[in-house]
TrEMBL record:
A Pfam family annotated for this UniProt entry: Amidase
Encoding gene, per UniProt annotation: gatA
Name of the protein in its database record: Glutamyl-tRNA(Gln) amidotransferase subunit A
Amidase domain: residues covered: 24-465
SUPFAM superfamilies (UniProt xref): Amidase signature (AS) enzymes
A GO molecular-function annotation: glutaminyl-tRNA synthase (glutamine-hydrolyzing) activity
Domain of life: Bacteria
Taxonomy of the source species: Bacteria, Pseudomonadati, Pseudomonadota, Gammaproteobacteria, Cellvibrionales
Transmembrane segments: none
Amino acid sequence: MTFCYETIEGMRGKLASGAISSVELTRESINRITDLNPSLNAVITVNEERALDAAAKADAARREGNSSPLLGIPMLHKDIFCTQNMPTTCASKMLEGFVAPYDATVVKHLNAAGMVTLGKCNMDEFAMGSSNETSHFGACKNPWDTAKVPGGSSGGSASAVAAGLVPLATGTDTGGSIRQPAALCGITGLKPTYGRVSRYGMIAFASSMDQAGPMARTAEDCALVLEAMAGADPLDSTCSDQVVPAYSAHLEDCVQGMRVGVPKEFFANDLNSAVAETIEASLKELEKLGAKLVDVSLPSTSLGVSTYYVIAPAEASANLSRYDGVRYGYRCDNPTDLQDLYLRSRTEGFGEEVKRRILIGAFTLSAASYDQYFMKAQQVRRLISQEYEDVLSKVDVIAGPSAPNTAFALNDSSKSITDMYMEDVFTIGANLAGLPAMSVPAGIVEGLPVGMQLIGRRFGEVDLLRLAHQFQQRTTWHTLTPKMEERH
Ligand code: GLN
């Protein structure tokens, strides 16, 4: 019997009834990674021994009466989370072989909940990208079509869940990196409110937007995992101390009369027409649930990408200055002096996209261009946040597409760097404004998944999760699987 496409909730029931043990589930996951990962490249580190040990401990804890909902469930972490005793590379040559001396808070929380970590997922280098092609360890593939990208930067996490390697992987989202890959791989992903989940031990890209979240099959599973991930952390001063709601207890709360704002700018020229039709059909499903669709406008949507690509690289250039070849990470051979050490370690250790961002950031932060670019971008960010706030004072949730297209081809030379940046045109606003947002499977276009995006009020994860959950009670998109093994 195979459990590979089972949800966390499903596995939980089978673990509780004794139909399967965590050691058996973990073995099945490891075998599946061994079989399928050569064609997916979704996982870049596996620690079998540690996983089986954790699984055995979870089984023992269960026998002693522990019934924590996540106990014994196998999972993977995006390789941006620091893990003790396991390498953390951020998919960069710069951190190849780096082993952190501590666990990220997210890792600690999920370990404490009894989850079994199998290893680490591929990603775009330092989380910069929308296709998982900037990884030092090679591109990750989309299980629905291995000639296509899984999206990025949490591409490995999305691919792993979609292929049934694990029911959960963590992701991070700075401009769309949980939602866009979740959409392209047909899974459910949630980017929480900025500050809901601790960033401690999560390697920094753009600190004012970076946020960790769950990538799983269903909203119900995301709710269970967010409950364990979220919460105040004395080690991250930007982490909120607001009480973490019991998200999973509110999934059935009534959505009758919920106002769902549909921004007209999300259905503009950038959107593929088949994707648009799919999203429109999903909006009708929300209406059938009793939600009220309201036309709204976010006029600055088209400014989001350019604003983000000033702010994110500026923050990245500051954050990535710590990789200097001295303290940790890659160091060049035989440096002639300190300058040479810095220069060559960074030149050789970072990939092209990361270097591009560092250069852009250093430029926009320089005295001569600060006012023109960085200050301006901060002002536009404020404007965009205000627009979202105004709209969300009239509606409960905003809905639209997660990404403008379905998964695109790997190594697509017709796609320019700015085309790639446009992948996040619908997701970036929620990051600039710090709002929670999720992507929910909403259809299939030419054999590839489409995701619907839901954006909520600050700390409004409860609304997103219950709307998504009830949508998933009416639809089957989240249950479709890519049939990897038939092709294999
Ligand atoms: N694709 C966007 C970028 O390249 C977003 C990345 C992210 O959310 N980490 O920056």
